[in-house]
Amino acid sequence: MKIYTRTGDKGQTSVIGGRVNKDDIRVEAYGTVDELNCFVGQAMSLMNPEKFGDLLEDLLQIQHELFDCGSDLAKLKETEKHPFKVTAAMVEALEPWIDKYDAETPDLTRFILPGGSSASSALHICRTVCRRAERRVVTLAREQEINPEVLRYLNRLSDLFFTIARTANLREGQTDVEYIRSAEVFRSKS
């Protein structure tokens, strides 16, 4: 199989159900999800399996689910032949992970600066790219049909990235740095 097809040489690409311009908001949305998936892979490459075995397993599953998100976004509409893949159950499955990793970290009352360990910094990049993907999907949803579970999934996923970035710092012995001009904006976990 050849990698190049030449079918996109005039600025269009195939999606499930037709062809669109390469700068179509649908392509921008699933392209940003693809970019996020790459950053997740990069973050995983920075994690020591002995310290982060559980996180690595969860992130691998997330990578597969991000492909599902991209697949759903690449469909002009759901059909019997091409049903949506992202489900409410996938969104709900992220919540126990958020709770589990959040329980590892100390209470937070102020905004924190992204950074610390290499893994944490990479996970904060995942969080911000996830938020951008979510914004692209919101724009797409205003104009065209989408699977609404993709939007919910990305919203919850960005919360998970925030939580596991903090977990990564904790496991690496790094302290989160509070934004010094932040008011107290978070409530105690208890």
UniProtKB/TrEMBL annotation:
Enzymatic reactions: 2 cob(II)yrinate a,c diamide + reduced [electron-transfer flavoprotein] + 2 ATP = 2 adenosylcob(III)yrinate a,c-diamide + 2 triphosphate + oxidized [electron-transfer flavoprotein] + 3 H(+); 2 cob(II)alamin + reduced [electron-transfer flavoprotein] + 2 ATP = 2 adenosylcob(III)alamin + 2 triphosphate + oxidized [electron-transfer flavoprotein] + 3 H(+)
Entry keyword Nucleotide-binding: yes
UniProt-listed Enzyme Commission number(s): 2.5.1.17
Biological process annotations from GO: cobalamin biosynthetic process
Residues annotated as domain Cobalamin adenosyltransferase-like: 3-168
Membrane-crossing residue ranges in chain numbering: none
Protein's pathway: Cofactor biosynthesis; adenosylcobalamin biosynthesis; adenosylcobalamin from cob(II)yrinate a,c-diamide: step 2/7
Record's keyword terms, sorted: ATP-binding, Cobalamin biosynthesis, Nucleotide-binding, Transferase
A single GO molecular function term of this UniProt record: ATP binding
Assembly behavior: Homotrimer.
Family assignment from sequence similarity: Belongs to the Cob(I)alamin adenosyltransferase family.
UniProt protein name: Corrinoid adenosyltransferase
Protein species of origin: Paenibacillus albiflavus
